[in-house]
Amino acid sequence: xxxxxxxxxxxxxxxxxxxxxxxxxxxxxxxxxxxxxxxxxxxxxxxxxxxxxxxxxxxxxxxxxxxxxxxxxxxxxxxxxxxxxxxxxxxxxxxxxxxxxxxxxxxxxxxxxxxxxxxxxxxxxxxxxxxxxxxxxxxxxxxxxxxxxxxxxxxxxxxxxxxxxxxxxxxxxxxxxxxxxxxxxxxxxxxxxxxxxxxxxxxxxxxxxxxxxxxxxxxxxxxxxxxxxxxxxxxxxxxxxxxxxxxxxxxxxxxxxxxxxxxxxxxxxxxxxxxxxxxxxxxxxxxxxxx
Length: 291
Fold this sequence. Notes:
This protein is mostly helical and 291 residues long. Helices cover 72% and strands 1% of the residues. The protein has a two-stranded parallel ribbon. The longest helix is centred in the middle third of the chain and has 32 residues, at 138-169.
């Protein structure tokens, strides 16, 4: 099973060797393993102060605007870089055409969609703040909550965990070296690191009730990942390649289905992690039929 390993590959000595091979110091491994803990601690302190001033909708809208700006800016930058480097690196043209089929791209696109839906929800809440009986439109609230709980949160944790685990172990397992021409360190962290604090902030700033049944959310989650698996398989049939090198390496061996099962278990575990975090930030709000 693929698991997130921040400070060990097999032992401490091998970790140092791998870190030096790819330009990472041993210090980065020690600090990296505390990354999520620090985010949660900092966010919780900020949220406690913000809650006292009743400005959560404005904090959320600020995060949404930042999310949209960050992702759209990165998309523009990578598009410009790809266009410049097409002639020098012919492989980048094929990479550009396949970009919409990368799970990371699906995830940050969903973050953009969720941010727009979040802005709309919070604008409606602020505009109708004097109306004590006002409730968000059921379809809008249901779409936003289901998108985040069932798809976006687990997808984000899968991207961060899967990508950085392979990246620290052997970068060639996750993408070929020629991608470095357009994927700078900043762009890499925008797509594979910054997406994590964004969803943690959503959990921290959006009080939610835990659903009585997780069936509907898990069905949405399963549909999303099965759909992506079909896209991967279609790409292999159409192009004769697996867009992630790790699948090419293990295709035809017993490890291939084990990797898929590991990802499925990781996604399911990631889904359930959000509810203890929700209780941590907001306490026990109650339970609803679904989110």
